[in-house]
Specification:
By secondary structure, the protein is α+β, with helices and mostly antiparallel strands. The chain is built from 6 helices and 24 strands. A 6-stranded antiparallel β-barrel has the order 4-13-16-15-14-17. The chain has a 4-stranded antiparallel sheet with strand order 1-21-20-19, covered by helices on one side. It is elongated.
């Protein structure tokens, strides 16, 4: 086995040990010939790709394991679009500011900015005299309530025997009710610190702050020894799998956009990586300063690694097909990737492998892109798992250079 195969086998064995992937030796000639026919688009597929291997052999079992799915291109007109400017923002329902809840001193910080944390994970530990007093109040109220219950039982017994007046029983009952109310109030005050009455952790002053939601820590404002107040925000956690692209829709475009409209977002940081989503929310109020309405675009899953809060970009919202628009050969945007400044798609081969095919692209809209050259209507193109195929391709390229 040559060095390329060794590197590639190591990569895929991680995903599926029983089904290694073999990579055909790289060739620096033309792409594999395709049968001629009226549906075949000539041009880019015949151009050489120096430094890029052409074939990747992947078994059907491994394809399923790493999520590779294929479909044929479609002849269809591209949608008209409206272009909007905006930025990446967190979902308010999946964003949490972790406050200190009590005055105290930071004794432990269990995270770094940028960490991915699970819901309930310990972030910060405080030492708080305020918390210790709240726990002591619960203990005192509970003891007083227990004594009141004992007194009530004793007075009830005396009244039943005629040894105490009924008035003493009423007084004992009232005292027991007051004590129970004090316990409840003390427990609720303790609950405001985010701890259960019996959760002392071995130290009545120890306050553990946990992540209210799972996500990425986007802000840290805590160091060991820092004195904090109850309202101080020590961390912000955002679930970037639920991030939005927030854009402003002007009144003239509002009639063309609806919830569920397909959107193509290109962030300035990744101009060659279109992100597909849908309009999830349209505001109900016009901003008087800009005469625009807020729109939130929900990204498709699997792009959270690219998302950073505040990244600016442009969104193209599909608004329908113009009458008389011609049919063109299209594939989903997810099928196209860039390798060494070339646009590629992975075309399935009868032997189970994929050919890295050069394509020339036209306009894109509605989550699909016009393929001008390099693809046939009868081809089967990878539309999911493209990142895995690209990783294999790049691994093999690096191996060849060693």
């Amino acid at each position: 086995m040559n060095r390329v195969c060794v590197v590639l086998s190591c990569l895929v064995l991680t995903a599926c040990p029983q089904h290694p992937v073999a990579l055909a030796p790289a060739t620096h000639t033309h792409a594999p010939p395709q049968p001629a026919g009226k549906d075949h688009v000539h041009g880019a597929s015949e151009a050489p790709r120096e430094g890029i291997p052409e074939l990747v052999q992947v078994s059907p079992t491994v394809q399923a394991a790493v999520g590779i799915k294929t479909q044929s291109p479609k002849m269809m007109p591209l949608s008209r679009t409206v272009e909007l400017a905006g930025e990446v923002a967190g979902d308010p329902d999946r964003t949490a500011h972790v406050t200190a809840r009590a005055s105290g001193r930071v004794t432990q910080v269990m995270f770094k900015e940028g960490d991915l944390v699970k819901q309930g994970a310990t972030l910060v530990v405080l030492e708080s005299a305020e918390l210790a007093r709240a726990r002591a109040a619960v203990t005192t109220a509970t003891a007083r309530a227990a004594a009141g219950e004992q007194t009530l039982k004793r007075v009830q017994h005396l009244v039943e025997q005629g040894l105490a007046p009924q008035q003493e029983l009423h007084a004992a009952q009232a005292e027991a009710h007051i004590s129970a109310a004090e316990v409840l109030a003390a427990q609720q005050a303790l609950g405001a610190f985010g701890v259960a009455p019996g959760d002392t952790g071995g130290d009545a002053a120890r306050l553990v702050l946990r992540a209210p939601v799972g996500g990425t820590v986007t802000m840290r404002n805590a160091v060991v020894g820092q004195a904090v107040g109850a309202q101080d925000v020590l961390a912000t956690v955002v679930d970037l799998t639920r991030a939005y692209f927030e854009a402003r829709v002007f009144e003239r475009d509002l009639a063309s956009i609806a919830q569920g409209s397909v959107v193509e977002v290109r962030l300035h940081a990744y101009p060659d990586t279109p992100l597909v989503g849908t309009v999830a929310f349209l505001g109900a109020e016009v901003d008087r300063a800009t005469q625009s309405i807020l729109a939130r675009v929900r990204f498709q899953q699997g792009v959270e690694d690219l998302l950073k809060l505040g990244l600016f970009g442009n969104a193209r919202v599909a608004t329908g097909t113009a009458q008389g628009s011609p049919d063109v050969l299209t594939v989903p945007l997810s099928a196209v990737t860039r390798v060494m400044d070339r646009d590629l798609v992975f075309v399935a081969r009868p032997d189970g492998g994929f050919a890295a095919q050069n394509v020339t692209l036209g306009q894109s809209a509605g989550g699909r892109v016009h393929v001008r050259d390099g693809l046939a209507l009868a081809d089967q193109v990878a539309v999911e798992g493209v990142f895995n195929l690209k990783s294999i391709l790049l691994k093999s390229t690096f191996a060849e250079e060693e």
